[in-house]
Amino acid sequence: MRVLVYGQENLSNIYTIDGAGQISMPLVGGVPASGLTTAELEQEVRRRLQNGFIREPNVSIEVEQYRPFFVLGEVNQSGQYPYVNGLTAQTAVAIAGGYTPRADRGEVEITRQVGGRLVTGHVPAAYPLRPGDTILVKERWF
User: Fold this and answer.
1) Which CATH number is 109's domain given?
2) How far, in whole angstroms, is CA 134 from its chain's centroid?
3) pLDDT tens for residues 37-72?
4) What residues have CB less than 8 Å from 73, skipping those under 6 apart?
5) What is the pLDDT of residues 107-123, one digit of tens each?
6) Are residues 37 and 97 in the same domain?
7) H or E element, residue 51
8) Which of 12, 16, 24, 73 has CB atoms 3.0–4.6 Å from 137's, for a disulfide?
9) Which of 62, 82, 113 lies at the terminal end of a domain, its last residue?
10) Does the reported pTM lie above 0.85?
11) Is residue 142 part of a domain?
């Protein structure tokens, strides 16, 4: 996450969300970030900085880099790819070199983490993806 605290160059930096879902910032320590929008995280950082450190902090946060997504199965180039906004299963397959001749083009299997658990489901190719998703393109049956 890119955190900008205007007028405070020592606090403005790129912070990584750790395995516990927190960013660690000077003065305020660990700030829970997992599951928050950038606006909610801005409010939390602002609140913590106001708590005895900076009178009226002006905080801006944006995503520097999303978690990658993974494409497996009947595609030409299985692998890990950088996530971009607006990604669907179909565009993910295109990024992975397209379908092989044996691919089931109707639906894909997506595995994603929901509430701390991995959940797998069959979805249409136009289904929107999230960072960290794994897409499996299965073989079609004749």
Assistant:
1) 3.10.560.10
2) 12
3) 899 999 999 999 998 888 899 999 998 888 899 999
4) 103, 135, 136, 137, 138, 139
5) 999 999 887 789 999 99
6) no
7) none
8) 73
9) 62
10) no
11) no
